[in-house]
């Protein structure tokens, strides 16, 4: 049975593997491009209130904080929060931050009012009830605000196992292999995430595949490429189908409409139905 994962035992190794590698650099680059789009859409509000939910060491939220915005970062792991505090202090951003040691499910107790932006990155795949947790977070986004969600893509996991010939593993339902401690516990189906967002009335603003082909390069094959070429190609393909949907992770960002926008949409829909009658 899947349980929520606490990274106290692997905090340093996890941070190094996520942020100190080519994989991490690709992830940071393409997702930050989306974050810039989000910040532009929210530019009428300054400073923004931001929640980095399950934020680890807050690599991306620190870039947001450096622009003058206020960030609350929560994490289940006290060790991860210690690393976050060290990194934030090193970057001179402590005044922009509030660090909260709690599970994502309880962060609402520490947020006095809805926030302008939530980052929910690479957390769902470590949770027992990922869609339920996402639904709860949507409630604390301010009308007109946005949420940025990145998740370990079920389709990417399936494709990786297919090209590696792990058909028996697929037939068994791709259970998590405990010996791979840094591999996420499960893949999340994109349609479930998109449906959760739209059911809550959010408007999806964009989608990006994170590492659409990098992780599928066979290391035993002799290729002709540099990392710079890989990064450039990833940026070129990451928002195009079918590559987007094959990303090892998918980043989707969505906006919560203002109440009056919801009313207008509902009114227009009702008028359209009357016309059909």
Give a brief rundown of this model.
With 277 residues, the protein is of the alpha/beta class. Helices cover 40% and strands 18% of the residues.
Features:
alpha/beta; seven-stranded mixed β-sheet; 7 strands; 277 residues; 18% strand; globular
Task: Describe the fold and architecture.
S-adenosyl-L-methionine binds at residues 27, 54-55, 75, 121. GO terms for molecular function: methyltransferase activity. It comes from Photobacterium angustum. The protein has helices at 11-19, 22-41, 59-65, 78-90, 130-138, 154-163, 167-171, 190-199, 227-237, 259-276, and strands spanning 49-53, 70-75, 97-101, 115-121, 141-152, 203-210, 249-255. Strand 1, helix 3 and strand 2 (70-75) form a beta-alpha-beta unit. Helices cover 40% and strands 18% of the residues. Helix 5 (130-138) packs parallel to helix 8. By secondary structure, the protein is of the alpha/beta class. The chain has a seven-stranded mixed sheet, with helices on both faces. The longest helix has 20 residues, at 22-41. The model has no long low-confidence stretch (mean pLDDT 89).
Secondary structure: elements and pairs:
Elements (H helix, E strand, L loop, with lengths): L10 H9 L2 H20 L7 E5 L5 H7 L4 E6 L2 H13 L6 E5 L13 E7 L8 H9 L2 E12 L1 H10 L3 H5 L18 H10 L3 E8 L16 H11 L11 E7 L3 H18 L1
Parallel strand pairs: 1-2, 1-4, 2-3, 4-5
Antiparallel strand pairs: 5-7, 6-7
Helix pairs in contact: 2-9, 5-8
């Amino acid at each position: 049975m899947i349980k929520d994962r606490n990274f106290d035992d692997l905090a340093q190794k996890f941070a190094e593997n996520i942020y100190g590698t080519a994989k991490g650099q690709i992830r940071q680059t393409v997702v930050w491009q989306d974050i810039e789009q989000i910040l532009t859409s929210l530019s009428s509000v300054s400073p923004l209130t931001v929640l980095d939910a399950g934020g680890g060491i807050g690599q991306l939220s620190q870039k947001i904080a450096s622009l003058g915005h206020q960030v609350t970062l929560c994490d289940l792991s006290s060790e991860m929060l210690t690393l976050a505090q060290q990194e934030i202090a090193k970057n001179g951003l402590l005044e922009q931050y509030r660090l909260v040691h709690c599970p994502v499910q309880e962060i609402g107790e520490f947020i006095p009012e809805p926030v302008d932006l939530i980052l929910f990155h690479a957390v769902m795949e470590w949770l027992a009830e990922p869609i339920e947790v996402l639904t709860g977070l949507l409630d604390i986004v301010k009308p007109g605000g946005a949420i940025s969600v990145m998740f370990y893509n079920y389709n990417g996991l399936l494709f990786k196992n297919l090209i590696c010939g792990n058909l028996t593993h697929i037939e068994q339902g791709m259970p998590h292999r405990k010996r791979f401690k840094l591999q996420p516990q499960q893949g999340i189906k994109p349609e479930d995430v998109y449906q959760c967002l739209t059911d809550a009335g959010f408007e999806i603003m964009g989608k990006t595949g994170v590492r659409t082909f990098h992780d599928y390069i066979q290391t035993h094959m002799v290729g002709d490429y540099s990392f710079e070429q890989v990064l450039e190609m990833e940026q070129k393909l990451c928002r195009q189908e079918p590559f987007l949907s094959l990303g090892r992770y998918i980043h989707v960002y969505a906006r919560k409409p203002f109440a009056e926008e919801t009313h207008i949409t509902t009114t227009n829909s009702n008028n359209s139905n009357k016309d059909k009658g």
